[in-house]
Design a protein that fits this description.
Layout lengths: L1 E8 L6 E13 L2 E11 L10 H11 L12 H20 L33 H12 L2
Antiparallel strand pairs: 1-2, 2-3
Helix pairs in contact: 1-2
Length: 141
C-alpha cells in the first residue's frame, strides 16, 4: 500500500493539478496490477517524505493492531491514518456481495461460531512489561 500523486487536468479549462490516491499492488494471475483503494483528494495534508508512515499504520489498523506508543509530534500521522482506515472500512462494508452466479447476494451474512473452539494465534496487544520497559528507557533510567 502506498500513496501516489497523479497529474490530472480538467477537460473544460485544461487546468492541470495533482490528486492523491491510496494504491495497493494486487497479484492477478502471474501479473501484478495496481488498484486504487481510495482517492485522497487534491490537498493531502502530509509532506511526501512522510507518506510511508500512514500507509504502515493503515495496514496495522486494518489488521486489528493497536499502536504501541504514540510518539509526540506524530498526532497528525495517526489521525490521518485513522481517518483513511475508517473510510476504507466503510467502503468495504458498503460494497455489495456478488454470488457465484453473478447476482447480488444478501447483505447480511450470518454464521454461527463455537466460541470454545477459538484459538488465538496472532494476539497483538501491549503488555504491562513492554509499557514499563518503554517508560524506563524514555525517562532515562
Amino acid at each position: 500500500m502506498f500513496i501516489r500523486c497523479t497529474p490530472t487536468s480538467r477537460s473544460s479549462t485544461s487546468e492541470r493539478y495533482f490528486t492523491h490516491r491510496l494504491v495497493a499492488s494486487v497479484r492477478v494471475g502471474t501479473k501484478v496490477r495496481q488498484r486504487t483503494l481510495l482517492k485522497l483528494g487534491r490537498h493531502f495534508p502530509l509532506d511526501s517524505a512522510l507518506w510511508s508512515a500512514p500507509c504502515v499504520r493503515i495496514d496495522e489498523i486494518l489488521g486489528g493492531q493497536m499502536a504501541w506508543v504514540l510518539v509526540p509530534g506524530q498526532e497528525e500521522l495517526e489521525s490521518t491514518a485513522q481517518r483513511i482506515a475508517a473510510q476504507l472500512l466503510t467502503r468495504k462494508s458498503e460494497a455489495p456481495a456478488v454470488s457465484e452466479g453473478g447476482k447480488l447476494a444478501p447483505a447480511a451474512d450470518i454464521q454461527s461460531l463455537d466460541v470454545d473452539s477459538l484459538e488465538l494465534v496472532r494476539l497483538r496487544s501491549v503488555g504491562v512489561e513492554h509499557l514499563g520497559l518503554w517508560a524506563k528507557g524514555h525517562v532515562g533510567f
